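User: Can you predict the 3D structure of Membrane protein? Sequence below.
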Amino acid sequence: MRILFALPLLSAALLSNAAHAQQAASTSPSFNWSGFHAGINAGFGTSDKEDIVTTGVLAGNIAQIAANRRPGLVTNSRDGFLGGAQIGYDWQVGKFVYGVEADLDITDLDHTTSFISTLNDRTDFKQKQTSFGTVRARAGYAVGNFLPYVTAGWAFGRYSNSVNLISNAAPNPVTFSGSQSGLGTGWTAGAGIDYALAGTTAFGNPVSLRAEYLYYDLGGRNVNVPGVPGLGNGGYVSRFDNTGHVLRVGLNFKFGGPAASSSY
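Assistant: Sure. Here are the predicted structure tokens for Membrane protein:
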């Protein structure tokens, strides 16, 4: 938890001193980004495409949705913290920097939305994402100790989606129930900025700070919601999307490659 709070403070310090660092870059060697880097990150994630669409299987199920006893459409907003680690390699040619990076974060994007009809029929929709990772290419342009960059690649994450339809009749049993979980895969794209801390090392390795935004899409999933034997007839199908936004800050340590370049 200390890392979670320390990294945003370091990022704020970076922004507040950006003008001073930019002026100092004109009189000191610029950072060379070539080589391996590894570090930690923490941040915040929020969902996108939050609508869950449900359709009935048999005529009776379709009629329940048409009568609004079961929802045809609900919105489930999810947000939460995330944190993890990254590793990558960069090549610098003049001012241009390109490389590859992989990362893995633990997330707590978890939320349940409940719909209650006018007749007190309840339907619960739950979405949960416990991890988020990427393997990406990135390309940037070095300006002194700053490296603004764009990035895109493959994304993955563990997810679970579930639906429970509960009767309004005592003892309020679950009459329809379905769930699906697994490893979702898709794509991600975004941008960020790295800043090398001039003269700062950790165990002999140069240190840099980072702020980064990513959009990801792990694809949509259809969850079959069949009737519980003896309680529900037919079934429903609910469509979930697993997409979102990530904003995070990080701390990197550089291994190998030249330390600095005197050219601008």
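The longest strand covers residues 174-202. The helical segments are 2-16, 18-25, 59-66.
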